């Protein structure tokens, strides 16, 4: 995956030189340095000057357009296409230009695209209207925003559940190792205009300099239009400086001022000021509060309030020093960390599965819902699919039949009952294929008479039934599920359930034909090692009100909702990512994985009261993909895993304490998550589980562990 070829396209006229680099250019250059793909990234832009930030830059010189009919954006895009047509890029990244994406998507198809928003989407052509933004969500593989404020602006009038296709990755800075020596400087950095609050700074700083004779004020930046001028003997207007020079000045500055009136999409000056140990004063505009952890906020945007804040810092040296040192130590956004995050996002767009087919032994008819009518969004949680994979990898031949899809596709003008059609199809297929084992689950569409017909055709046939849903008492859903199991339990040879059979015995069922199976993991499905990644979120949980329904059912609630509501109140400062909860629809397929791998830890919470060995299929997704996983101790799954592999909790308070502990102890989290995955794949992979199923079905002595 390190050979991934990436094309990064800057906005037209974004300066990519060392002397005049702008925000998007600095972003690209900063993250390029630490990317594992840096040797395979080409940056494209339109820049005057030659002193480029990096060697992997290609300048597009479109010259002067003579015709008003020709758009500079279109001309820019055409030039890009002409220059790169001989290179086969895997991923195209576009910064701050939705119209560039729209043009390139139509011309360069079958590529992955990431669109970065550095500014307010509602002010940008191609993303102003609701339909524009819905189009981008449907067609861009991932949208990344520089702050939550920019992300929030994008989703004005849009359904919030669509946010799953987006991420926030902040502009970042390299930290200094040693706190710098400071001068008595007060510094403003930015355009010297009123939108940046320079007029406010002017009035406040003149008053400060008159009052405090030992202090000096600096202004870094320029403005070609009419603007305020500060006339004071101890004020220095330095003009525009390159990025390195600005950082050097901020390193020597005591107090930095960012009194912006403009809704800053992010506010890089505040980030840089804090990282260089400045006591920083900011306005509460746009994404500015997201840039820095320790600051003084302007409650009112006028020169008098700014004057009071600056004076307060001058007169209170201990407070000023405390803010400076805290800001220097607690830099919120570090280049190296966020560079890994971007690389993880890039990699997540290229998830592939390859099956390994081997020579066959048994013929197995596997009947289950393959989810065609659901566009295969259940592939990653489908036990039926994992069973097929396991059978094949153990050397058997498998014929898959999707009962619900057959019945749905057979609907039409025919007066013949669809279920009757399905029974005829099964019977004729059985005759043609002549299986040794019929294995089915999660269906009521296989009639008893059809099973008897199978047995009449092949007396040596083995028929086994599986069910993964809960069977614990006290749950309405379980009553229906137990009835479904009971319909087949006596006429098949074996039943496999994901709960210890003793739970069924307490409900009056004869459990002689029942065996417990653990939810299997599959090397091509549970294929991530999250413990080696750098997730943004802390805790992941996903549930639904039924896989076929696919969306939330209004007014529906169960024990999981109540548990999550209580848990949230106990885990302040935990960045949780819950789905199927609080009007946030469930997620499926690749969206499920994109969200799952973005969290360090996972909660394995199933519906109903915990009973022996039961877990929903989410346990394989969590542990199998390398998330640190929390499991209720009452499930008794500690019979298989110990505390160095899965975290078992006694109650909700114990769970909350352990979540908070492992959030702040990454080394322990990584070690336990890795151990859990290794143990799971050793004990309960798809080959071992299906081999156990075949042994049990054919009467061979076999133990699960």
Architecture overview:
The chain is of the alpha/beta class and 705 residues long. The chain folds into four domains: 6-168, Glycogen Phosphorylase B (Rossmann fold), CATH 3.40.50.2000; 185-332, 3-Layer(aba) Sandwich (Rossmann fold); 363-516, Rossmann fold; 530-683, Glycogen Phosphorylase B (Rossmann fold, 3-Layer(aba) Sandwich), CATH 3.40.50. Helices cover 36% and strands 15% of the residues. It contains 23 helices and 24 strands. It has a seven-stranded parallel sheet, sandwiched between helices. The protein has a six-stranded parallel sheet with strand order 10-9-8-11-12-13, with helices on both faces. Helix 6 links the parallel strand 8 and strand 9 (216-220). Helix 6 (198-211) packs across helix 9 (303-315), helix 12 crosses helix 23 (686-697) and helix 13 crosses helix 14. The longest helix has 18 residues, at 666-683.
Give the strand tally: 24
State the major sheet. 7 strands, parallel
The second-level CATH architecture of the largest domain is: 3-Layer(aba) Sandwich
Mean pLDDT across all residues, rounded?
A: 90
Walk across the major sheet and give the strand order: 3-2-1-4-5-6-7
What's the CATH first level of the largest domain? Alpha Beta
Q: What share of the residues lie within helices?
A: 25-40%
Percentage of residues in strands? 15-25%
């Amino acid at each position: 995956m390190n050979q991934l070829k990436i094309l990064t396209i800057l906005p037209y006229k974004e300066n990519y030189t060392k002397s005049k680099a702008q925000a998007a250019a600095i972003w690209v250059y900063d993250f390029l340095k630490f990317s594992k793909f840096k040797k395979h990234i080409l940056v494209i832009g339109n820049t005057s000057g030659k002193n480029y930030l990096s060697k992997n830059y290609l300048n597009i010189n479109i010259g002067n357009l003579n015709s008003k009919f020709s758009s500079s954006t279109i001309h820019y895009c055409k030039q890009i296409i002409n220059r790169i047509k001989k290179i086969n890029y895997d991923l195209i990244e576009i910064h701050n230009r939705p119209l560039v994406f729209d043009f390139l998507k139509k011309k360069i198809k079958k590529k992955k695209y990431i669109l970065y928003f550095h500014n307010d989407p509602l002010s940008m052509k191609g993303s102003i209207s609701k339909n524009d933004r819905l189009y981008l969500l449907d067609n861009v593989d991932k949208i990344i925003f520089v702050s939550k404020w920019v992300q929030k602006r994008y989703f004005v009038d849009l359904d919030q559940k669509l946010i799953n296709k987006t991420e926030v990755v902040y502009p970042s800075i390299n930290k200094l190792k040693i706190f710098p020596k400071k001068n008595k400087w007060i510094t403003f950095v930015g355009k010297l205009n009123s939108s940046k609050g320079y007029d406010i700074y002017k009035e406040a700083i003149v008053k400060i300099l008159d009052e405090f004779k030992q202090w000096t004020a600096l202004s870094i930046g320029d403005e070609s239009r009419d603007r305020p001028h500060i006339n004071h003997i101890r004020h220095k207007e330095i003009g525009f400086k390159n990025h390195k020079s600005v950082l050097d000045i901020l390193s020597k500055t005591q107090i930095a001022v960012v009194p912006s009136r403009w809704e800053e999409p992010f506010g890089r000056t505040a980030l840089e000021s804090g990282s260089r140990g400045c006591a920083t004063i900011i306005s509460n505009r746009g994404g500015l509060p997201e840039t820095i952890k320790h600051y003084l906020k302007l409650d009112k945007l006028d020169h008098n309030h700014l004057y009071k804040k600056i004076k307060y810092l001058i007169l209170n040296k201990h407070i000023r020093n405390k803010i400076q040192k805290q800001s220097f130590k607690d830099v919120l956004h570090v280049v190296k960390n966020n560079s890994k995050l971007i690389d993880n996002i890039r990699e997540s767009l290229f998830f592939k599965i390859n099956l390994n087919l081997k020579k066959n032994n048994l013929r197995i008819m596997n009947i289950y819902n393959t989810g065609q009518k659901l566009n295969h969004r259940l592939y990653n949680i489908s036990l039926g699919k994992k069973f097929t994979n396991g059978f094949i990898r153990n050397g058997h031949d498998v014929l898959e039949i999707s009962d619900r899809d057959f019945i749905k596709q057979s609907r039409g003008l025919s007066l013949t009952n669809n279920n009757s059609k399905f029974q005829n199809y099964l019977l004729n297929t059985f005759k043609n294929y002549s299986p040794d084992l019929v294995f089915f689950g999660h269906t009521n569409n296989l009639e008893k008479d059809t099973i008897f017909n199978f047995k009449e055709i092949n007396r040596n046939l083995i028929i086994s039934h599986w069910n993964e849903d809960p069977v614990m008492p006290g749950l309405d859903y379980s009553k229906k599920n137990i009835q479904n199991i009971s319909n087949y339990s006596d006429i098949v040879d074996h039943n496999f359930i994901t709960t210890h059979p003793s739970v069924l015995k307490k409900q009056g069922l004869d459990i002689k034909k029942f065996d417990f199976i653990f939810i299997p993991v599959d090397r091509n499905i549970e294929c991530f090692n999250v413990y080696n990644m750098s997730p943004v979120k802390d805790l992941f949980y996903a549930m639904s009100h039924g896989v076929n329904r696919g969306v939330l059912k209004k007014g529906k609630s169960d024990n999981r909702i109540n548990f999550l509501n209580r848990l949230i109140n106990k885990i302040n400062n935990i960045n949780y990512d819950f789905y199927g909860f609080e009007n946030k629809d469930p997620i499926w397929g690749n969206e499920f994985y994109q969200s799952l791998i973005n969290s360090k830890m996972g909660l394995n919470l199933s519906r109903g009261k915990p009973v022996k060995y039961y877990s929903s299929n989410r346990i394989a997704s969590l542990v199998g993909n390398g998330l640190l996983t929390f499991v209720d101790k009452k499930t008794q799954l500690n019979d298989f895993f110990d505390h160095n592999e899965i975290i078992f909790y006694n109650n909700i308070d114990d769970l909350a304490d352990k979540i908070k502990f492992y959030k702040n102890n990454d080394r322990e989290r990584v070690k336990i998550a890795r151990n859990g995955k290794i143990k799971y794949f050793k004990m309960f992979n798809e080959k071992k589980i299906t081999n156990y199923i075949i042994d049990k079905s054919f009467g061979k002595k076999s133990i699960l562990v």
